[in-house]
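input
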Amino acid sequence: MTDITPTYLIVPSSSTITEGSTLTTSISTTNVVQGTTIYYSLTGTGIDSVDLSGSPLSGYITSDSNGDFSFSHTLVDDG
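output
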């Protein structure tokens, strides 16, 4: 029997990010078909919706033709 368990490798564009910069999260997969939906939520100490420019703290994304995902969030530069 062939193993068809999906796997996900989550890679942020940076481990630290400054205000005004964009964080892109890429998710490479195996055994995930195009059109699969995953849900995400950004959490952490002191993080709330006013910290992001036009991006929600949680939501969903759909996989591309390779079964992979990518989404970005820009941090507000509030000085």
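quick obs: The chain has no helices and five strands.
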